[in-house]
Design goal:
4-stranded antiparallel β-sheet, about 20% helix, D-Maltodextrin-Binding Protein, domain 2
Length: about 300
């Protein structure tokens, strides 16, 4: 056997072994994840940071969503979620969505077009119930109203054409809320239609969600039966003078000469360290865009 064939045979053997090990992995269990912050509430529509978006997006569904295996978001990577498709009117001011049938909320109630209408009435301030905070109300300034046509079709009527409207509906902040659950309840015990059910939220400690055994997507198989997100805490760091120690080089605040000058009534100098940044190293400010987070664990 030639060296090239031996190398190929070894690569195939390694691939087969890896595939066998992956197949032998046991499904289920609890996935524990660290998280950078504790959100103020569990309500996606009342919060403005990824502290709630990341753990809660898997509890909900959108009408449409960016395809999660495509590296870059675009209009072409938007796919149906709770909707089965969409169509624009000829003048570009009406966006219609036929909806999936047989979808249930986590409390067993059926999902209908009325839930979509209630969600955007809430976001535009037209509902009798009000959000305590509404950080994305300005997104929908061009939305005139949402109308329903039976139980499984909705139409978004715009004041003027806005091709980007579909992109906003595909973002991670555009979850559909249930009509029968108040905004107050959604802050502490959200009800969704997603692959994970909310279990509990202990501020500054953890967020726990569990697999939804009745999830409506037939091809979805969450590999994790429970996700537990724990909030991390930064380790306390002593003041800089304690960390530097006597005689620190470079005239830092811990320097003996600096302390002596301060004791004599002279103003203390503050030392700043500057880091040179080469163009294109990834540290430049990034343009602000729509969040893109996947439904974790849906297979």
């Amino acid at each position: 056997m030639t060296p090239r064939l031996r190398l190929l045979a070894a690569a195939v053997a390694v691939g087969v072994a890896a595939a066998g090990a992956a197949h032998a992995q046991k499904l289920g269990g609890v996935l524990q994840m660290s998280h950078f912050d504790s959100p103020a509430s569990m309500s996606l529509h009342e919060e403005a940071t990824a502290a709630v978006n990341r753990p809660m997006m898997g509890v909900f569904n959108n009408l449409v969503l960016y395809k999660q295996d495509v590296a870059q978001n675009s209009q072409q990577s938007i796919v149906p979620d709770l909707a089965t498709g969409w169509s624009w009117s000829e003048d570009g001011t009406e966006l219609t969505f036929p909806l999936r049938q047989g979808v249930k909320w986590h409390d067993g109630k059926p999902f209908t077009a009325k839930d979509v209408q209630c969600t955007w009435d809430l976001l535009t301030g037209k509902a009798s119930d009000k959000l305590r905070l509404n950080p994305r109300k300005s997104w929908y300034q061009n939305l005139e109203k949402v109308t329903v046509n039976g139980d499984y079709e909705v139409t978004f009527r715009l004041k003027r054409p806005q091709p980007s409207f579909l992109a906003m509906l595909a973002s991670g902040w555009s979850a559909v809320y249930p009509c029968h659950v108040s905004p107050r309840e959604m802050r502490t015990h959200p009800i969704g239609t997603g692959p994970f059910k909310f279990i509990e939220f202990k501020p500054n400690e953890l967020i726990r969600v569990a697999k939804n055994p009745d999830y409506w997507k037939p091809d979805a198989d969450p590999r994790v039966h429970c996700r537990q997100v724990r909030h991390g805490h930064r380790r306390h760091r002593p003041p800089v003078e304690r960390r530097q120690g006597a005689g620190s080089p470079g005239g830092l605040p811990g320097d003996t000469n600096q302390r002596a000058a301060h004791a004599a009534g002279q103003p203390r100098r503050t030392a700043f360290r500057q880091r040179r940044v080469a163009p294109g190293d990834g540290t430049e400010p990034r343009p602000q865009g729509l969040y893109r987070h996947s439904h974790l664990g849906t297979g």
